[in-house]
What does this fold into?
Amino acid sequence: MKQTTYVIAEHTKIARQTYFMRLSGDTSAFTQPGQFLNITLPGYYLRRPFSICDWRMGEADIIYKVLGEGTKDMTAFEAGMELDTLTGLGNGFDTSTSGESPLLIGGGVGVPPLLALCKELRAQGRQVKVALGFGSADEVFLADAFQALGAEVAVATMDGTAGIKGLVTDACDFKNCSQFYACGPTAMLKAICAVAPGPGQLSLEERMGCGFGACVGCTVFTTEGPLRVCKEGPVFKREVLGW
Amino acid sequence: MKQTTYVIAEHTKIARQTYFMRLSGDTSAFTQPGQFLNITLPGYYLRRPFSICDWRMGEADIIYKVLGEGTKDMTAFEAGMELDTLTGLGNGFDTSTSGESPLLIGGGVGVPPLLALCKELRAQGRQVKVALGFGSADEVFLADAFQALGAEVAVATMDGTAGIKGLVTDACDFKNCSQFYACGPTAMLKAICAVAPGPGQLSLEERMGCGFGACVGCTVFTTEGPLRVCKEGPVFKREVLGW
Amino acid sequence: MVDLKVTLCGIELDNPIIPASGTFGFGQDFAGLYDLNRLGSFSFKGTTLAPREGNPTPRIAECYAGMLNAVGLQNPGVHKVISEELPRIATFFSKPVMANVSGFAISEYVEVGRLLGAQEQVGGLEVNISCPNVHGGGMAFGTDAKAAAEVTGAVRKVTDKPLIIKLSPNVTDIVEVARACEDAGADGLSLINTLLGMRIDLKTKKPLLPFTTGGLSGPAVFPVALRMVYQVYEAVKIPLIGMGGVSSARDVIEMMLAGATAVQVGSANLINPFACPQIIDALPEVMDQYGITNLQEIIGGAH
Amino acid sequence: MVDLKVTLCGIELDNPIIPASGTFGFGQDFAGLYDLNRLGSFSFKGTTLAPREGNPTPRIAECYAGMLNAVGLQNPGVHKVISEELPRIATFFSKPVMANVSGFAISEYVEVGRLLGAQEQVGGLEVNISCPNVHGGGMAFGTDAKAAAEVTGAVRKVTDKPLIIKLSPNVTDIVEVARACEDAGADGLSLINTLLGMRIDLKTKKPLLPFTTGGLSGPAVFPVALRMVYQVYEAVKIPLIGMGGVSSARDVIEMMLAGATAVQVGSANLINPFACPQIIDALPEVMDQYGITNLQEIIGGAH
Ligand SMILES: Cc1cc2nc3c(=O)[nH]c(=O)nc-3n(C[C@H](O)[C@H](O)[C@H](O)COP(=O)(O)OP(=O)(O)OC[C@H]3O[C@@H](n4cnc5c(N)ncnc54)[C@H](O)[C@@H]3O)c2cc1C
Ligand SMILES: Cc1cc2nc3c(=O)[nH]c(=O)nc-3n(C[C@H](O)[C@H](O)[C@H](O)COP(=O)(O)OP(=O)(O)OC[C@H]3O[C@@H](n4cnc5c(N)ncnc54)[C@H](O)[C@@H]3O)c2cc1C
Ligand SMILES: Cc1cc2nc3c(=O)[nH]c(=O)nc-3n(C[C@H](O)[C@H](O)[C@H](O)COP(=O)(O)O)c2cc1C
Ligand SMILES: Cc1cc2nc3c(=O)[nH]c(=O)nc-3n(C[C@H](O)[C@H](O)[C@H](O)COP(=O)(O)O)c2cc1C
Ligand code: FES
Ligand code: FES
It folds into this structure.
C-alpha cells in the first residue's frame, strides 16, 4: 500500500451515470488486477474505494458509477485536480490457477476490474470468455474493449435493449470453463455460485472504514473465519466463501 | 445583505503576513465604508468576516492578515477561485457628522476599512489626518494610498522601524480634530478613548456566528443595552459604547 | 406532485421545516431575505421573564462541522416580546409561531408559558429545559426526569396550547426523560438541544468561551440527534420535532424516517441565511428520488 | 529544542501519541508503513476471553466530519492474542503496549485482565467499559458509576500493571463515573469512547447499521471529548488519556491543556494511515508557535 497524490488526466462519461477517469501518478503499488484504490473526496470524511480497471507505469484507470453523494460530486472533478489516494489495496485476482479457458463475469460496476484481468489472461495465452450484465443498453460499457483483447463477449441486459434479455447468469457459458472470475453485487455473485460448476474467484464489495485492514469494518464470514474484504480480499475463492 | 459568489481577481502579498485580495462580483449591497463581508472558506464551518477596504461597481477589495488556520489557508487561494460570500453587512461609518477635519486611526488589520472612508471624506472636501499603527516596518501597508488621497499620514511602529516609535495613540494629533474614526483591536480603541477629546466612531471586532444579526453571538454591552456588532455595528459612536 | 404537509399537535404545517430557536431571532433578520410564510413555522429566541443581557463575549467558537455557542439566553424578556416582537412578527408572518419558553425556576417557566400561551399568534409552546449556557437552571431540568416532569406538569396547568418540551441530549437515557414529560402532560417533544462541548484557545491557553463550555450544534451532532429521535419515537406516542445538524433535504427525510413529525433547522441558518427555503425547494426532488410522495406517511418509517 | 516526553502512570513515553484501540488492529497493518517505535505506545484491539466474530456488515457508516462503527468487538480472543499477536508485535514494537480489555461480565474482564496483565510486553491495561456496539455488556458498565467501580475493583485485584479505565461519553455526568473508578483503584482514565449515533439509508429507508446504532468518532466529537477531559481533570488526581476526534498536533495540545497526559488518535489513522507519525513530526513546530517547550508542563494548563 502507498499513499499517492494522483492528478486527474482524463475524465469522460462513457455510459449512463458512468464515468471513466485516468489518473496520473505512482502506480508501483499495484501488482494484481482486482486490486483497488481509496480516494479522499473533498468534504467527505471517509475515502471512496474503486477497483483499478487497468494501469500502466504512471497511470491508473478507474470507471465509476454515480451511486450516492460522493460519486455525484466526482462527476464535476476537472482534469488537473489532485486526489489524495491510497493505492495498491487488496489482494487482486490470482491468474496462476486460471486454466486454459477462464470465464470472466461482471455486473454493472463490477465490470471494470475484469479488464486488466482479461488483458493479463490473454497475455498468458488463455482463451477468455466474458459475460457482462447491465440494466439497459445505455449502461453498457467496456464490451468493445474486451472484444479488442480477443475475448469472446456476451452481454445481457435486464430489459433486453442490448444482448440477451436477462441476468448476467443467462449470458454465462460454463462449458469448458476452467475457472470463473466474478465481480458485481453480492446477489449476483451468489446467483453465479448457485449455477457455476467449477472453481471460481469472487471479488466482494463492503462498506469500508479504512481499506487497508485497520478497522475490521469490512469483514466477510468465511469457512476460514472472519476475513477482511480490504486485506485478505476483495477476491476470495468460492470454497473459502463457502458459496 | 446579499449572498454573492465572488471570483478572486487579484491576490497579492503586500506586507508581512498581509494580503490584498480583489473580488469580482455584485457589490450593490455595499453602501458605506466600514461595512464588511463574510466568506465561506472550504473546510470550515463558520464564515470569516473581513472589512471592505474599498469597492466599486463589480469589485470589492479586502486586505487580510494571517491570524489562524483559516486565513493561513486563504493565502493559497488562486485567482479564478469562487467564494461564497455574504455582502453588505453591518452599518459602516457615518460621514455626515465628520466635520471639517476628521482624524482616522487604524491599527494593524483595522487599517483597511479606513481607506474607503478616507476616499469618501476627501470627496466631501474634508481635511483628513490619518494615524496608522503597526508592529514593525515590514508590516506597514496602505500608508502611501492614504497619502495619494491627499491625507496627512502619521505612522507609528512598536519597534520604531518606521515612523514614530510607539503606539498609534502616539501618532494621533487630536488638534482641530472634528471627529475621530478608529478601527483596530479593542485594547487600542479603549486607549484612544482614554486620550481622545471629541466625538468619535469606533469599529469593533467580535467572533461571529452569522454576521447578519441572527444568533446574537457578537453582542457588545452599550449604554443603549446589548447591541450586535454585526448588525447595529460594527461602527458605534463612542458615547454609545460609553468609552 | 408530492405532498409536504404534516400535522403537528393538531396544527397543519405546509411543510415540516421550522427554523430552530436561537438561530432565527424573532424572524426580523430573515424577513427581508425571503417570504417567511414559506416556512412550516418558526421558533423564536428563548424568552425569559425578565430581559437578559446574556453572557460576555466571545460567545461563539468554531468546530469541525459545527460550532459552539454560549449566548446565555440573551432576550428582551417576555413583556417586550409580547409588546414589540409579536406585533412586528405579525407584519411578516401570518402563521402560528412557536414560542420558546426559557427560565431558571419552575415559577418562571409557568409565568412565561402562561403569558406567551395566551397570545393568539402563538401556535405552541416549546419549553426549553435544556439550555447548557446558563447557570442554575436550564439544562438542570432537562437532565433529570423528575425535574423535567415537574416543569411540564406546571406549565401544562396554565396553557391549552400545544405544549412541546425541548430535551437535552446530555443525558445517559433520553428515553426516561421523554417518558416522564409525556406522562406529565406534554403534547410533543423537541430534540435535541446542543451537546455540551468546549474549545481551548491555543494563544491564551485558556478556554475560548468565558464560562468554559458551550453548546455544540451543526452537522457534527446529526448522528446523535437522529439516534435520540429514533429511540424516543419507540418509547412515546406524542409527536416529535427532530433537530440537530439538519442542513439538507436528505437530512430532513432521515429525521422523519427516524420518527420526527417536523424538523427544525438551526445552525444551518447562520452559515446560509437561505438554508430553510433551499431545503423546502429541494424536498420534492429528493422525495422523488427515493420514491416518497407524501411526507406525513414516512414519519417513523425506519422502525 | 522541545521536549515531547510525558510520564503516564509511571511509564515514560517518548511522546504522548498513542493510536487508539480498534483503529490500529494489533499494529501489523501499520508496521510496514512506518517504524512503530516512533509512537508513545499503541493500544491494541479490544480483546475478550473467547474469540468473537463481531457484528454483521455493514459495520461502517459515514457522517459529517466523522464515522459510525458497529464492529462489535471482533477479535481473536485473549489466548490467541497472547500466543500469536503479542509475539508478532514483539517483532516490530519494542516498547510497552497498552492492552484493551473488553468483556461482557465482570468475571470476563477479570480473566482477560489477569492474563494480559501478566504479559511482559503489556505496559498497562485499558479496560473498555464503554463499547456501544455489543449487547448485554460493554457500555452498560460505563454508564453506571457503581458498575464501573465494580469492574475497576475486580480487575484491580488481579494486576499490578497500570489500570486505566476507558469511559463512555454517553452519560449525564462523566465526573461521577470517573470518581467512582478512581476510588475503586484505577491508576488512570481513558476518555472518550464513541458517542452513540445512527444513520438511516435513504434507499432502504431503514437504519444503515444492522443493530440500528453505532459509535460516532472523528473530528465531530472533539469538542465533547475535550469538555469531558476538562471536567474529569478537575475531579480526579489520576492521569487522563484524552481522545475523540484528535487529528492534528493542535488538537493534541488542546487535549493536553484540558488535562490529558497522553493523547490517543483513533479514526484519523483510518483515513490517513500516516496520521500518527505526521502528528508527532508536526508537534515541535506547533509547540514553537505557541511558545511551548515541554509537553509535560502544559498538562491541565487551561485550568
Ligand atoms: C473494493 C471495492 C471496489 C469498488 N470498485 C468500484 C468500481 O470500480 N466502480 C464503482 O463505480 N464502484 C466501485 N465500488 C463501489 C464504490 O465504492 C461506491 O459506489 C462508492 O463508495 C459510493 O460512494 P457515494 O459517496 O456515491 O455513496 P454514498 O452512499 O453517499 O456513500 C456513503 C458511504 O457509503 C459507502 N458506500 C456506499 N455504497 C457502497 C458500496 N456499494 N460499496 C462500498 N462502499 C459503499 C461510501 O464509500 C461512503 O463511505 C467499489 C467498492 C469496493 C468496496
Ligand atoms: C467586522 C469584522 C471585520 C474584520 N475585518 C478584517 C479585515 O479587514 N482584515 C483582517 O485581516 N481581519 C479582519 N477581521 C478579523 C478576521 O475576521 C479574523 O482574523 C479571521 O476571522 C480569523 O480567521 P482564522 O481562521 O485565521 O482564525 P482562527 O482563530 O483559526 O478562527 C477560528 C474562528 O474564530 C474567529 N475569529 C478568530 N479571530 C477573530 C477575530 N479577531 N475577529 C473575529 N473573529 C475571529 C474566526 O472567524 C473563526 O470563526 C475582521 C473581523 C470582524 C468581526
Ligand atoms: C446560537 C444558538 C442559540 C440558541 N439558542 C437557543 C434558545 O434560545 N432556545 C433553545 O431552545 N435552543 C437554542 N439553541 C439550540 C437550537 O435551537 C438547536 O436545538 C440546536 O442548535 C441543534 O440544532 P442545529 O444543529 O440545527 O443547530 C440555540 C442554538 C444556537 C446555535
Ligand atoms: C472502528 C473502530 C473500532 C473501535 N474499537 C474499539 C475497541 O475495540 N475498544 C475500545 O476501547 N475502543 C474502540 N474504539 C473507540 C476508539 O478507541 C476511540 O475511543 C474513539 O474512536 C474516539 O476516538 P477518535 O475520534 O479519535 O476515533 C473503536 C473506534 C473505531 C472507530
Ligand atoms: S475497511 Fe478497515 S479493515 Fe477493511
Ligand atoms: S454574528 Fe450572529 S448576531 Fe452577530
Summary: Residues B 209, 215, 217; C 20-23, 45-46, 69, 71, 73, 100, 128, 131, 166, 193-194, 217-218, 221, 243-246, 265-268 surround flavin mononucleotide (ligand 3) (CB under 6 Å). Chain C touches chain D through 44 residues (CB under 8 Å). The mean pLDDT of chain C is 96. Chain C has eleven helices and 15 strands.
